[in-house]
Each structure stands twice: as structure tokens, then as C-alpha cells.
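Schema walk-through. Below, the input block comes first and the output block second. Nothing else is stored per chain. Lengths vary across the set, and this one has 451 residues.
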Amino acid sequence: MNKIVATSPASASRKIFRRHFSCYLLLLIGAILFTLTMGPAFGQTEAQDLAVVINALTHPDLGITASLSLINLMELSERRAVDNEILHFSAEPLNRRRAVGLSIRGHLAYIPTFNLPITGAASSGDNIFIVNLEDREIVGEIPIQAGATPQQVAVVGENKMYVTCAAAHEVHVIDINNRNVTKVLMGFFNKPTGITLLNGKAYVTNPAWEYDPVARKTTYYDSSVTVIDTETDSILKSIPVPTNASGILTDGESTIIVKTTGNYNDILGHLVLIDANTDEVVETVKLKLTPGSFALNSEKQLFIQGSWQNPGLLIYDVAARDWIRDEDDTLTNFSNDADAPISGGLTFAPDGNLYITQPDWSGSGQDFVRVMDVADASLLQTYHVGPGGSILGFARIVPRRSDINNDGFVNMKDMIIAGRFLGDEGAGILADVNGDEVVNILDLVLIGQGL
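--- output ---
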């Protein structure tokens, strides 16, 4: 007698999944092998290097809303290089929508925004806009609870992001694919603002201030840096630091660098160095001023923007823990243009040049991004950007259609999606990467090159 074995639906589903996965795996292996035989020139397209500028000014009386500008760094003409205000984050100036942060992953930019409230009121419309820098359009948004006032974002992995929410005193965990908040970390934060990632941990600054709109007074409490395990989203430690910790960055190896600004009166700023292996403070440097923006180059030289009382740049050697230029020896002008002051936000480009934003908060249109060669402090370029051009990041855009699901990565997800269209013919097929109106091994090869 033949024995009949019943198969459960779950078991059958697993077998089908295994068969499909095996097919996709074979397709991937074939695509990679074919890529290696075809050579690196197959399917290559020209990359474009961009500077992404957030024009942060909102001015209802002048009809100005926050916007985005792009600078083509491969264009020699300074005027033609800038595409100004290609996107606006609100069509209504009265909403006073603020764009306060920027994180770039591949060809996607994540920009936290909220509608600026009247004094004492909660924010509204809090969200993170997703901008496709290649297509130059807003392709979605991630809603954040009203009144949270999102500040900075950090992409943890392919599908996870942290966002600091100052007014809510929380850090929200985002599912990037589903574009929603999956978890809220609370109880360890006080006005969380800055965030940086290193060695499986996130470091969040807590400025810990509170503004009383009736008394028109700001009170500063104990400031700190909160350490989060990015694998488990658990809080590991709270590190006390001087008053009003705001900016934070990493040297990419073992050091977290925190900038504190004091109370803008009798308490001045500090630099705090934290050993990321032990999460202990290893150096606290007193400043004689209230520092502005700061940025670190590949030589571990920290460039710090001085205050209006002490204009120009200070330079601190993080590795040597010593000053290259201190408060008494600031770099105030470009060596080849004494009429161009060095002031504004600081960001180092991948090529080592320093980009300095100089926003005009009056709305009169004198907003610039200047590029410095740090070897001799010479002025290389000057770009005219949009109102309040103050936040800047860099992106390398490779024109391609191999990011099938448009999530900023080319990975197995794209290969799996393309496999479902294999053999289809016709115009406009999602997985037709090379545009020849048929989905075949050549399209899989192009995806394989991006893995």
C-alpha cells in the first residue's frame, strides 16, 4: 500500500519559498559571473558629484519658504553649477516650515522638517521628507508625531533610522521601507539634538535647555550624551558633559567629539573627547568663546567656527590634542581674497576641501557657499545659493535604474524583484534596467554590478 503523507500549507509555502530563493540565487550567481566576464566597462554610466544645500530661511513677510538647492561640483562655471531652490518644503510661507537636518544615503536625502509654532505652541506637520536627488523630486515622507520637532537623522542600516525629537525628549526608531515609527526611546533624553554613529552605537547630545516664553528666559540643565546600542535599541549609558551640548561627530575610529556652547553669556563653550571603546570622557578642552559650526577632516584636524566676537576659524588637532590655531590666532580671511570673510557652517568634501555656508538671514539674497583649499586657506569657488543656505551635504549620483525599489541601495531585494519580471517584453517595465524593452540576464548583470 502506498503511504500518503499530508503536507501542511505552511510546509508547502516554505518549499515554494526555497525553490524561488534557489532560482534567485542561481540568477544572482549567473549575473555576477557574467559581470566578471564582461569587464568593468559594461553598463557604466557617468557619475555626478553634488553638494546638497538646505536653504533654511522661512520668512512669511517676504514669501520665502525653506527649499533645496543642488550644486554640480563637476561644472566649472560657478553660475551654471547651481540649481537654486529646485524644491520647496512648503507652498505656504505662513506655515513657516523649518528644514533643520540632512542625511544622504545613495541618491536619497532625508530631511527632517516641522511647521514652526508661534511662541509657546507645539509644532505641527512634523515629518521627514524623502528626496530623490537623481530625479530631483520629493518621493515620500515619514510622519513624526505632532509636537515632536525632529532635529537630526542617522541611518543605522538598510532599513533603520534614528531621529532625535527635541520637544518630545525622545529618539524615534524608523522603519525606512514602511516609512513609519516602530519604536520610541524615552526617559533618557533632554532636548535631544545631535546624533552620530560609531562601532554599533549611536551617540545623542542632550542640550537640556528650556525656554519660558512668558519670562523670555532660557534655563539650562545638566547636559549629557546618551549612548544607544543600535542592535537592540537599548540605552547603554549617559555621559555628563558641560552646558548645552549640541554638535557631535566621530573620527570614524575610536573618538566621539562633542561641542558644547554654554549659555551664550557667562558660561562659554567646550570640546569634549569621548573614547568610544569605554564611553569615558578622555579630554575636556575649555574655549574662550561660544563656538559655531565644526567639522573634522581626514587628518583629524577639527575646524571650528568662532563666535561673532571672535570671527574666523580655530583648528584643533584631535590626535595630538593640541591647538593648531587657537582663539588668539584665528583664520579670519581667505589668503587670496582678504575681502571674503570666513564665517558660517562647515562641511568637508570627500576631496578634502572645506565648504563654508554663509547664510543671509535677512532675506536679502546674499547667501553663499565658499570652498576653501585648507592647504593654503585659498578661496577656490563661490556659489550663490538660496535664502538661508546653511546645511550642506554631499552625494554621488550614478544614473541608473538598477535600484528597482528606489530605497537608496542596490541589493538582493532589487535582484529578487527583477527576477519576477524575467522574460517580460515591452516598454516601461520596472526591471528593464538597460531600457532595451526586454528583461533578461543583461538587466540582472547591471543590478549585480551595484551589489
